[in-house]
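Hey,

The postdoc asked me to send both predictions to you directly instead of through the lab channel. I've kept everything plain text so nothing gets mangled by the mail client. Protein one:
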Amino acid sequence: MIFEVAYGRLEEQALLVVESEKTLTAQQAIEKSGILDRFPEIDLKSNKIGIFGKAAKLDAELADGDRVEIYRPLIADPKEARKKRAAEGKTMRKGGG
């Protein structure tokens, strides 16, 4: 069975292949890939993960060919960013008139 483990930061991305004779959990694939040594900032207690873009738990069993993705924390809250852009847009329309 073949699995992939993906992680990226702004300046570097990695897609590592993990081979196993048996099915693995997402956490086992992550640990076996060696990605935790390559990117020491990854903390599986706080970083969220997904399988092909869908949120998953560390104990999720993988199917052959699955890609486990480790997500970085968000820099800004998306709701707050939208509110800020909307407020700036309203101000610009009123003042730019």
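Protein two:
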Amino acid sequence: MAVLMVVQGSGRKKGYTATLMQEAVDSVKDIKELDVEVFHLHDYTYGPCKSCFHCIRKVGSGCVLKDDWGKKGKGVLYKAFKRANGLLVVDPVHNWGITAAAHGFMERIYPTFFEGVPYGLPFASISCASNQGFQYEATVKFCRFAAGYGFRYIGGLPVHLAYFDKARTDARELAKKLAQAAIEDERNGRKKPTDEELFQRFLGKPFDLLDGYIQNVTDNSFKYEDSIPVQALNQEKFSDPTAVELLEKTCEHLKAGMDLYNVGDRENAARELSQVAKFWTNSTYNEYGKDIVKAKIPKAYRPLDEV
């Protein structure tokens, strides 16, 4: 039996956001191959990640915080996420973005990331706004989480109350797509996407992984020569021999990727940037991460043997 985990970030259980969640649930609750589990996030206790790195040092042990995402793998939200074949987050727009409840929920998925659990998990979001809106900004933020965790992104539904009647129908249709993906996840097994597949899948999505990654790695300059890896190499900021070797490969792929990006070849640029992500991750972890985390890089986290 496939499990669809549905979480709702509003403190109001009978408001507009809750209504959209119920529309989604009602549209799939009678599917024989699917079990729908609903969680109103304000009914649970959890806080932010405290960067203790226990989940990296002891992969698979869960989070040590004594809350509903922790308890060393016994927290109710942790266990629910681990058994889920699909995840739907339904959330109101707060302060032009996602709620603190939803952000905290998404952040606390972190320990399972190093276990390889989220990679390929079907995911969708619904963001309900009033007033000035910014439902699209909230949708982008959920999509960014999806890219970061390697989810199988089914879609995001940005909603303004002016179009609420249409949104009720759209919520049902999105839930049906997600439910089918969850059933496939249970039936066929979850396939972890490579970094290259992730970069390709998130081209042109609400959060464009290629543009976002280039902005980040070039320190918002969008220029190869001003990028952080190039500056770090030229200024000899890295001293670990393995880190330096990986940094050189980072720069090699970044140069190729930026050349392709600048002539508009986004697909091949994404292919090169996926290699940048892998080498840059391992380079920085060797230089900084080992001393901070005091553990080797987890096997699920951008392994070099996928290059």
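Summary for protein two, as requested: Residues 195-306 form one domain.

Thanks,
C.
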